[in-house]
Amino acid sequence: MKEVIVIGGGLAGAEAALQIAKRKIKAELYEMKPEKFSDAHTNENLAEIVCSNSFKSNLLTNACGLLKEELRLLGSELIKIADEVSVPSGQALSVDREKFSEKVTQKIEENEYIKVIRKEMTQIPKDKIVIIATGPLTSEKMYNEILKLTGKENLFFYDAAAPIVEKSSINMDIAFWGDRYAQERGKEEDVSIWKERIKNQEASYINLPLNKEEYEKFYEELVKAEVVTLHEFEKREIFEGCMPLEIMAKRGEDTLRYGPLKPVGFTDLRTGRRPYAIVQLRQDNSEATLYNLVGFQTNLKFGEQKRVFSLIPGLENANFVKYGVMHRNTFINSTMILDETYNMKENQNIFFAGQITGVEGYVESISSGLVAGINATVLAYIYQKEEDSNNEVNIDNKKILEQYNKKKITFPKETMIGALSKYISTENDKFQPMNANFGIVPELKEKIKDKKERYKMLSNTAIQIIKKVVEEKNV
User: Fold this and answer.
1) pLDDT tens digits, one per residue of 54-93
2) CA atoms within 13 Å, Cβ hemisphere of 93
3) Most buried of 82, 124, 156, 174, CB within 10 angstroms?
4) Integer Cα distance of 199 and 160 in angstroms
């Protein structure tokens, strides 16, 4: 009972294993790659990023920005690595995805407390502390094990990855550099400084403007393009947080212009006017040779992606190094199964972590891995203490579980990490995956109309609480 079994080497599983090892408890990390790959994974490294390379905003007036800051204070190993391999992305934290997974893999494989086992786990150990972090693309055998374990019907949602193009193939005679609202910020400082940044290509995004005619042509071809045929079990409601571009477009001709192609906050310096629509490309690697199409998650066939996306001015000769893909994502009904520590309510030796719990997003998955890892360690310490005292130990020992319930670490709902834990563990008939957002955090006692000021106060409160938890609980 002195070690913890972690099943799955994605973001949540990697963070959990490192948190366990940091506390000098042994962890066995099972990862089925390279023996077996899911439909979305392509390389052998742990913590592989398959969708966007962005960990979202760093601003404390942004919910994900607050969550990252909380994780930094709590000693998240993966957020630390993400900071180390970040690439320019304005106010967001974006990473070189290859270097990120390479560095996480190296850190884990060199850790004396972690044993990496490269094989598919097909059974859930009954006599060990286990963290199940198999992700939204859980293998069929493990899926069936989880189904037997939970006794609940699993739910489904869908995730889609955006295409990536070579920067050298983008027509820079059409494209221009710039960050959204950069001009407005520049007015408060010095517009000449902002223009110099654009000239020197120091802004975070490459922008492709479309006029009305160009946009309408692109839209017309997009909505009639061929998509990959889904299986019957996949034909369910698509999760709003990662909706394919073509599905969004079919809601109306102007939907994209109010979504990923919105031109608000931009003026094309060559015309002095706001474009009718705009496509943004974000740096995807440290060398700035690859850029991904922001918001272009898609289920179009590869040939159709090449044909339709090449209609965007500036991408007429683009070299697509990776096309968008769409795949089934699986999550459990956590509200009926888990508590606020991602621990099973009916089996306290088993934890879940990652997107399979219904937290949606990279940073959110890392946060669940951190919480599960910390609390699995708390339970492991109690078991170890009993063993060292030569007491009989079994997984149904009520004395051990009573001690654990008193010592487990839950995070207050006023923090973003606590609010997410609370959300996935509170019964809800219409439970859906959730990103970090201020809507799940309790409101302030005083009413503040200004949204940014309100978010700032919520963040300040959360940070103070996390600092207190770190100090009192010695997290």
Assistant:
1) 999 999 999 999 999 999 999 999 999 999 999 999 899 9
2) 23
3) 82
4) 34
Q: At what angle do helices 416-425 and 362-388 cross, to 10 degrees?
A: 80
Spell 324-335 as b/e; 16+ CB within 10 A means b.
Answer: bbbbbbbbbbbb
Threshold 0.85, pTM exceeds: no
Burial 409-442, CB ≥16 within 10 A → b, else e: ebbbbbbbbbbbbbbbbeeeeebebbbbebebbe
Structure tokens at 321: 């190094």
* Residue type, position 294, single letter: V
Residue 36: phi, psi to the nearest 5?
-150, 140
Whether residue 92 contacts residue 56, with contact meaning beta carbons closer than 8 Å, is answered with yes
Cα gap 475→468, rounded to integer Å: 10
Please write the tens of the pLDDT for every residue from 231-263: 554 455 555 556 889 999 999 999 999 999 999
Q: At what angle do helices 362-388 and 398-407 cross, to 10 degrees?
A: 130
Residue at 12: amino acid letter:
A
